[in-house]
Design goal:
This protein is mainly alpha-helical. It is 36% helix and 4% strand. The protein has a domain at 5-42. A two-stranded antiparallel ribbon has the order 1-2. This is Aspartyl/glutamyl-tRNA(Asn/Gln) amidotransferase subunit C.
């Protein structure tokens, strides 16, 4: 696949990037270089290769999933201008 200057101009327009007309041939060349790299990657046999999350084998730090600041309903609702039956009360806005 080859990218010409018209296609490069269209891609720049879709990306909302202003590219001067004299810079379009260089942009098209860069696109063609990128497509060449992609074609090289498609030739690599990756059958049986496990997907990687990171380039270094690390485990994420984990913490216990425990509730630490719960059961404060009364304190939270004490700041509300209007609270009823354990909930914030707000004015009706839809008829």
């Amino acid at each position: 696949m080859s990218i010409d200057t018209e296609t490069a101009a269209r891609v720049a327009k879709l990306a909302r990037i202003k590219v001067e007309d004299d810079a379009l041939p260089a942009l098209a060349s860069e696109f063609n270089t990128i497509l060449g790299f992609i074609e090289q990657l498609q030739e690599v046999d990756v059958d049986g290769v496990e997907p990687m999350v990171s380039v270094t084998p690390m485990r994420l730090k984990r913490r216990d999933d425990a509730v630490t600041d719960g059961d404060q309903q009364d304190r939270v609702l004490s700041n509300a201008p209007d609270a009823r039956e354990g909930f914030f009360a707000v004015p009706k806005v839809v008829e």
